[in-house]
Amino acid sequence: MPGKLKDIQSGPDSRRINIDKVGVKDIRYPIAVLDKKNKFQHTIASINMYVDLPHQFKGTHMSRFIEILNEHRREITVKNFPDILKKMKARFSASTAHLELEFPYFVEKAAPVSRSKGLMEYRCRYAGSLGKELDFSLELIVPVLTLCPCSKEISKRGAHNQRGLVKVALRFKGFVWIEDIIKTIEASASSPVYSLLKRVDEKYVTEKSYDNPMFVEDVVREVAVNLEKMKKLTWIRIEAENWESIHNHSAYAFLERK
């Protein structure tokens, strides 16, 4: 039998400096996300896991993070997120634990007129930390279409439009569906974006956006108004960025509400 291997990480450190976060980043891992239509959706997440490190210890046992992930194989959801954070705190004897997941989420979406169906991808992020209290936020990135109100007003024919992204981060009480947040964001722009459109759908989207012109300022305000109707939300942060079709720059707006 070989002798016991020396545990360097648990050894002392003489510099007496606490580290706020130490851990592993960019772990590619399969997870299950709660899906409003299909109960669960399986996807691949990029995962970051951290704990704090007191000054008296030299390092952290990184393999324990992977062990915890393996114990929750394909069962990482919003509902058991706090349990994973508790396990991280206990396994590392830490004061705080942090867990971040970023993943693609797909929604089957029908075109507005032909009803042709295609899958739309949205970028999602869960971020949670557990110290004395639990903090959890959901972040979504949703593509949208906007049409410039100024261009419409001053032009005899047409108006320039652009594709943009709306990024929303929120905290909430209880539970919210990803699909409901996406639908609310899309309804707050000149038009949603679709993965599949027939000619009748292109006509509809073009005319709908023309009848509903919006600056990025309008978009963030409209998203705020519509999200605040959801009484479960306790904090929201909204960003909108348009890739201008006639300018060599982006247009941007940001707001935060508690």
* CATH class category name of the largest domain: Alpha Beta
What structural class is derived from the secondary structure elements?
A: alpha+beta
Q: What best-fitting shape do the alpha-carbon axes yield?
A: elongated
Count of alpha and pi helical runs: 6
Work out the helicity level. 10-25%
Low-confidence stretches: none
Give a count of the beta strands, DSSP E runs of length 2 or more: 9
First CA to last CA: what distance?
60 Å
CATH architecture of the largest domain: Roll
Query: How many separate domains?
Result: 2
- The CATH topology of the largest domain is given as Urate Oxidase
Would you identify the CATH H-level superfamily of the largest domain? Urate Oxidase
Kindly state the mean pLDDT as a whole number? 91
Beta-strand proportion: 35-45%
- Tell me the series of helices and strands, N- to C-terminal: EEHHEEEHEHEHHEE
Measured on Cα atoms, how large is the radius of gyration?
23 Å
Biggest pleated sheet? 9 strands, antiparallel
